[in-house]
Design brief:
The protein has about 400 residues and is of the alpha/beta class. The protein has two domains: about 220 residues, 3-Layer(aba) Sandwich (Aspartate Aminotransferase, domain 2); about 130 residues, Aspartate Aminotransferase, domain 1, CATH 3.90.1150. Helix content is about 35%, strand content about 15%. Helix 3 runs parallel beside helix 10, helix 4 runs parallel beside helix 5 and helix 13 packs across helix 14. The termini are far apart. Bound molecules: pyridoxal-5'-phosphate. Pyridoxal-5'-phosphate (PLP) binds next to helix 4.
Length: about 400
Amino acid sequence: MTSHNRKSGGVNDAPEPESAYTKIAYDPLDTRHYGAVSMPVYQNSLFAFESYAQFEQAIQDENGQFHVYSRGNNPTVEYLERKLAELEGGERAKCFGSGMAAISAAVLSVVGQGDHILCSNQAYGPAREFMGNYLKRFGVETTFVDGSSLEAWKAEARPNTKLLYLESPTSLQFELQDLAAVGAFARSIGAVTIIDNTWATPVYQQPLRLGIDLVVHSITKYISGHSDCVGGVVIGPNRLMESLIRSEYMLLGGIMTAQTAATVMRGLRTLPLRMERHQSSGLKVARHLSGRPYVRQVNHPGLPEHPQHELALRQMSGFGSLFSIQSDEPLDKLKEWATRLRYFKIGVSWGGFESLVTVHRLPVRSGEMRNFVRFFVGLENPDDLIRDLDDAWASLQDE
Ligand SMILES: Cc1ncc(COP(=O)(O)O)c(C=O)c1O
């Protein structure tokens, strides 16, 4: 060992880091790679061995400490997985080629023929489609519930309910579920809970610490943070992750590549910093919109008028910058407003550097259809974004 890399072991080891900033930035010195401060990209499909005995030993523990084949365990991907597990407070993480690959693998790892799923009725659309329609052909039934009501979860549970699927906050109407309460109820009936934690990120919400079993993320959003990657992750305890890795991960094969993992890791380094900025800018823009005459309601859990603001403060330590407004203005006018915005681009996804806008017609609690505009507040100056919103709206009144 050379003098510059002495910190890799022994008395000089840094203490267990606590803050997300430190967890993300700090690594013990890695002497396997000449002290390189970022993990090299292992662009290889397979790993070779000096002896047949070593090969056989590695095959026995392919998803443990050995590397055999990159569909199973690639060092660059594994490095990202360790970081994400640490951030969420989970024992194990596994990265996937997309958020949906992570969600479908996690769900399939829990349910089988004849089982029943309870799913929040505002969860991400393709996740609902997967559980509600696709899984029907394998004899799995799904009931969609008002996730904000603990009573609704309880009322719809059946003896064969194996999974409660949450997403909190939801990503169109920003409704919360009480994670500790739903988690405790699931445990009482012997069911597993999965939550989509994409909105809050592990920086602002750690559901495993509140009693949820498995966390999934679309890495495509804040975690990668630059609109240049598609990926997903499942994080949880070894007791659930081991079978998920052996079956849904290895057999369905929806892996993340080493190149993507390295790009995600580069984005992850600034996640807490970006989240601080997203939080403050998102709240500023949301507060501004809450005073506008064309806005019936702002759906942002960080605003005191959000009906679940208290719960939000209890289970999250900060807020994402994706929120929506409900408006009584005609849908066409809202779409024209979106078209006239300069800094908000029209497009799906979110979590990158750039602000985005989409217009939706959605059912509300009463069953009535209402008009919504969803904003993602990026890293621009929030005052420029507010001026953009005001100017574009004013230009519609001039005609
Ligand atoms: C809340 C949420 N979960 C999951 C997904 C799916 O992620 P991916 O597009 O990476 O498959 C998305 C994508 O928009 C999302 O918004």
